[in-house]
């Protein structure tokens, strides 16, 4: 029986293969690499990271055992109440993974970093804003918490589909600093374009942040032990349980097209036939367009980041306004507490969207917060988006990872591909019901 769907790897593809398998589709997954997850892999041992970035020599002894390291090429955290966690719970991939809560989120203001308040007590003590500002901000948060897009009584004169976010901030009389940290550290926008959009999405994003925070208290973010490379592997195992097939080390020689439609993929002289193909941009350079670049710098430190209260993990957001840029700069920091680094070592990864011809200078404000840095690994990657939506060709292409430090945009991409493939919205509740139909209620308990 030929597979309905063939996938070529990155995290989006791994998650889709899991979801499609659970939905009873026949899936074949090929990867030219010897590991899962493509761009979103975790590299181990440390020697391999040195090789990958063409650094001379081997890691110094001070770095400890090479196999104690699992370094994400592209760091991201999971929102505790976000879409990826829902996908993990729905597909039950959670049984293969263990998570830890990230200890704090910080925001940059006037050259210093401040903790993003995670409780009312923290908010009252925070030096991010003055006393009256705190009161107004609290009123705003209460409004957001009560806001229900299906109940106009909660709108207080705001039209969620028309009123801009700029006007909502005005309504609560919030100042520029508070707007900066609300838009960038809570709603997690990368630029200020959202200010002139209808406020509904921003309000929902702040709700997501608050609900995620409420689950574990320290921050809204989770991170898997042993690194993000565990995610694609978890979905690969899931796919296998439902009869999906995985092939690593498979060079992809050609995507076979007949009458403008994909019919298979040629590898090592043989053609694996399929009705639909999902792949990342690196396999179909003629069907994607470059939409920008991201610079990422992986830094190995022997100390926690200053002014984070010695957190063993954290996120720092540098809002673009604070450093005269159009897009934010992000830092993710994790450590031996997550089984991704040797004892006493920390991995901090800074990333941002490239805006000038000198990306290393653009990322400097983040690196300054991390000094002294023991070793740096710098990469600049092109961002691609599909020009072919797949309607005709049935080739569905995922987008390259952006600079954000959470998975919400990646999940939007997954839902978008799902919709283009299946012709219907991605709906968790609907899928749960279907799963019950196939396997009965008992096994779900």
Structure description:
The chain is α/β, with parallel strands linked by helices. It folds into three domains: 5-42 and 228-288 and 386-439, FAD/NAD(P)-binding domain, CATH 3.50.50.60; 46-103 and 290-384, Guanine Nucleotide Dissociation Inhibitor, domain 2 (2-Layer Sandwich), CATH 3.30.519; 116-215, Guanine Nucleotide Dissociation Inhibitor, domain 1 (Orthogonal Bundle). The protein contains 13 helices and 20 strands. It has helices spanning 11-22, 46-52, 83-91, 120-125, 131-146, 165-171, 176-186, 200-216, 230-241, 359-362, 364-370, 408-422, 428-439; strands spanning 5-8, 27-30, 42-43, 71-72, 78-79, 99-101, 105-109, 112-115, 221-224, 245-247, 254-258, 261-267, 270-273, 276-279, 288-301, 314-318, 329-335, 346-353, 375-386, 395-397. The strands form five sheets. Strands 8-7-16-17-18-15-19 form a seven-stranded mixed sheet, with helices on both faces. A five-stranded parallel sheet has the order 10-2-1-14-20, covered by helices on one side. It has a three-stranded antiparallel sheet with strand order 5-9-6. A hairpin with a 2-residue loop joins β7 and β8. α1 (11-22) packs across α12. The longest helix is centred in the middle third of the chain and has 17 residues, at 200-216. The protein is globular, with a radius of gyration of 22 Å. The two termini are 32 Å apart. Residues 440-445 have low confidence and may be disordered.
């Amino acid at each position: 029986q030929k597979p309905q769907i063939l996938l070529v790897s990155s995290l989006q593809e791994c998650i889709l293969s899991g979801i499609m398998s659970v939905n009873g589709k026949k899936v074949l997954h090929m990867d030219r690499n010897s590991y899962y997850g493509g761009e979103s892999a975790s590299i181990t041992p440390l020697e391999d990271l040195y090789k990958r970035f063409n650094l001379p020599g081997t890691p110094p002894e001070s770095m400890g055992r090479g196999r104690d390291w699992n370094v994400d090429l592209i760091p991201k955290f999971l929102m505790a109440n976000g879409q990826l966690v829902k996908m993990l719970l729905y597909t039950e991939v959670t049984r293969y993974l263990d998570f830890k809560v990230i200890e704090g989120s910080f925001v940059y203001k006037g050259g210093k970093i401040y903790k993003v308040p995670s409780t009312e007590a923290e908010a009252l003590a925070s030096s991010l804003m003055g006393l009256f500002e705190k009161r107004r901000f609290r009123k705003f948060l209460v409004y957001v918490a009560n806001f229900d897009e299906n109940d106009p009584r909660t709108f207080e004169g705001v039209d969620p589909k028309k009123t801009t976010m700029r006007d909502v901030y005005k309504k609560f009389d919030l100042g520029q600093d508070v707007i900066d940290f609300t838009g960038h550290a809570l709603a997690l926008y990368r630029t200020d374009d959202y200010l002139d959009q209808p406020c509904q999405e921003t309000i929902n994003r702040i709700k997501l942040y608050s609900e995620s925070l409420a689950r574990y208290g320290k921050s809204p973010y989770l991170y898997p032990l042993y690194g993000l490379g565990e995610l694609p592997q978890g979905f690969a195992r899931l796919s296998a349980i439902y009869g999906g097939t995985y092939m690593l080390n498979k060079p992809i020689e050609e995507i076979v097209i007949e009458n403008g439609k994909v019919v298979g993929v040629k590898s090592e002289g043989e053609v694996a036939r399929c009705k639909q193909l999902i792949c990342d941009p690196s396999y179909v350079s003629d069907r994607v367009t470059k939409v920008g670049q991201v610079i990422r710098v992986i830094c190995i430190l022997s100390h926690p980041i200053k002014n984070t209260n010695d957190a063993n993990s954290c996120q720092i957001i540098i809002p673009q306004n604070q450093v005269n840029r159009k897009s934010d700069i992000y830092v993710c920091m994790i450590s031996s507490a997550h089984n991704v680094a040797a004892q006493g070592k920390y991995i901090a990864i800074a990333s941002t969207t490239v805006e000038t011809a000198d990306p290393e200078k653009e990322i400097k404000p983040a690196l300054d917060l991390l000094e002294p840095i023991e070793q740096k690994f710098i990469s600049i990657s092109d961002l691609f988006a599909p020009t072919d939506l797949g309607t005709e060709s049935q080739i569905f292409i995922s987008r390259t990872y952006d600079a954000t430090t959470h998975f919400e945009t990646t999940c939007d991409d997954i839902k978008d591909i799902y919709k283009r493939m299946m012709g219907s919205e991605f709906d968790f509740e609907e899928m749960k019901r279907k799963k019950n139909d196939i396997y009965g209620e008992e096994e779900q308990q």
